[in-house]
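User: Please predict structures.

Assistant: First:
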Amino acid sequence: MQIKLGVSNISSLKSFTKLSDRLASGKFRDDLHRGVVDAGRKTKTKVQRAVTKQMNLKAGNYNKYVVAGTRGISRKAILAFDIFGVKGGTDIDEYRGLRSVSKRNRLNVGRTALERGSVRSGVWNNPRIFKRSFEANGNFYSMLPPSAGTSSRAPKVLWTFGRKPNQPRGAGGKFASSGVQYGKIRRLFGPALMKEIPEDESLDTFLLFGPQLLELHVGKRLEKLMRF
């Protein structure tokens, strides 16, 4: 996302007919650039707060995840300020509303037996159950679809370490193959900050406050420049 100084978004520029001449002076351009940076930083803070709410993060993640993973870069040559995220998804248990539920939960309605999951989350402020999700040993996982590959050897996270009395055994007493094909397993992750910033509530916040703050902070500096 980018806020940029231009005639269309700063009303005071419309009456500043000699702006282009004055911008040739490094000092004047520096002043305008500082106004853009001030507006950009304040807009970035509002966007960070909005995306934290949007992603439904638990307390404590604002600074260590959102602030740490958001960048604000000024572009002096074009008098602009870019706001973007650099972090991917964090652990799913950093989001509110996470818990293990029955596969008969209403949020699984319409899914096939293989698609039903048991991990519910309030990510995106929208309760959902992740497909093929499950809890094991206090962690949350998802089994990838068969198209990602299968194996007759169970993933380690599903190992029972002898606690499955019905599993067949071979002649030597060792566990024999159950004949089940297992899909690949991955840890569950939540939404990625870099994808969430330019969307939904975060984007709406940027579009609402970005132009206002640009008008305010650049306008104050323009008033000083226009006195001379």
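Second:
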Amino acid sequence: MWFKNHIAKNDFLFLSYSTGEWRRFFSVLIWGGGEYIKVKPHFSQGLVPLMHDKRDLGARLAAFYRGMAEWVGQKKKYFPLPSHEESRDQLLAYLYMREHMPSDLHEAMEDAGWRLEGQEAHLIDAIEQVLAYLRTRVDGGWELRKMTRKEAKQLLHKRAEAVFGSPSSVRPTRIMVTMDEAWVDEPGLIERLLLYGMDIARINCAYGSPETWEALVAIIRQAEKQLEQQLQGRRCRIYMDLPGPKIRVDRLAVNAGPMKLSVKKNLYGEPMEPLFGLISFSSSPPPSPLPRDVSFLWQLTAEDGATVEEGDKLLFTDVRGKKRKLRVTEQIAPSCFKVLLSRTAYVQKGMKLRRGSASFTLCSVLFIPMKAFVTVGTPLYIYFDDAAFAQAQNGCGVKMTTTLAKAWRNVRAGDRLYLNDGQIAARVVKVHERHVEAKVVADGGKRKAIKQGTGIHLPDSFLHLTVPPLTDRDLEWIPFIARWADIVGLSFVQAPHDLRKLYHLLAEQGAGSLPVIAKIETRAALHNFVRILLEGLKFPAFGVMIARGDLALEIGFEHLAAAQNDVLALCRAAHIPVIWATQVLEQMAKKGIPSRAEISDVFVGKQAQCIMLNKGRHIAEAVRLLSSLLEKEERQSGSLAMPKTDGEQMNLLNLWEDEG
């Protein structure tokens, strides 16, 4: 022991108590020169104030407990439950503590070594344990449903298993991965995801079609059969998101300026992958579905009835004076041809193309999906219907229509408008009878793309007053989801009645027991969050997703950290499992290298029972990394052991070891 040479007989040992005063509690009786000392109690000072502080703390905590018990007893009458009453009472008790515990009582308990933070799941029992230690009785006839720490942990584990399925044997936190439509043709990738640790596959029904979703489910089940021995019977659950009232760009038209068609280059500046596109000699829409590899559509007019055929080359000079050519690769419709562009070109309306003596004029250029680039100052014109959009004149900005046109009813001048997950910020300049005029005010320092399907947020415009959380599209997809999904997510939930409506719709499909996830991504959801949790306790299986991307845009980035911590604490109090979502290991999934902040975010997210990853080129490696991080954290839980370095185990508990 480091202090054995600094102590002698008749010395005093001092101890600090809540008042901050150092007091003698023990005097050294014998020092035998060994590894221990013998002491005797020494009550020469401070004992009476100490006992007084203890009794005072017990009395104040008892008064707080009585107030809490009476308040919970009154409030729970308004929230009758057929079961899960213990979770309701813990949640209400936690709310009371947050709102009514005096700060000085809170500080006194901390000074005495008791903290109630982190005890949300068994708060009533935790307070009673402190009162028992302080030998303080609380009389009353309250009927509070309390739980011990162990019981609360077991209940949360049971509910998480009902929603997400059984956890891995090496980590309790599940891994969810958002599926990409293109993975239908990549069974090898699906197999790697399953082997590396994917527990749940998420299908976002805001994109694609039932045929694509069904194909994704089929390829996952096929991969499970191929890996039956390695997976040891573990089954991947299918999670499907209802689209919800998300405003998205529908039709899009750009200004008449030059448009860049970029061909990727290697390190030496040589073209790598050519661009495929379509040319059409008709004003009617191209055939559907379009080939997956096309990225642009040109509408041409031919002089003297000229046409093209497979193998032809169309020569043109782009707006920079660079000579370029299109090669016709195949005919996909009577007046529509697939073409190949091998070098980057800047094009615009009115440009001429030639094939021998035949001449063609470029009438319009569209990206597929439709895309427009904006910078700070770019005007945006959002039209309420297709007729107004068609009649609008092309100006210097970007014009568009959106889904959910009625979402714009409450928009006012000065309201904020975010596009593309907040990468583009704009402000409403003026509201007209048939359209809204806005201007881009922030773009992150470089031009950004607006595409068909880009999400739009209106945090100042009270969307929940004009648009219900279950749209016509949601109602259309519910029968399919009830048949194929293991879990259903309710997007943009706003209030408890949204959950009740979804439950009745699922019950009509014979899927009333299907686990439901309430996605918390709006200001209204936070405002009604406790009542949403209490409604969710009525469900056979229920969970919460913290959709941090949309939520940050709704409430402001500066409030996100506090909001997500509150959601986690309230869910712990109600024993409700949580999905931690949005931008988890995003750089790793997209670029193959994680950022330092992403690694820290994973360990914050470990408080949840499931962590969600979004798609990316390196998603398999991201799943493997996340699984490894969670497994190591589980093994090292409660210790300060660090990874091995140069063959030695780094240990932070080495304070007593001699140097050298």
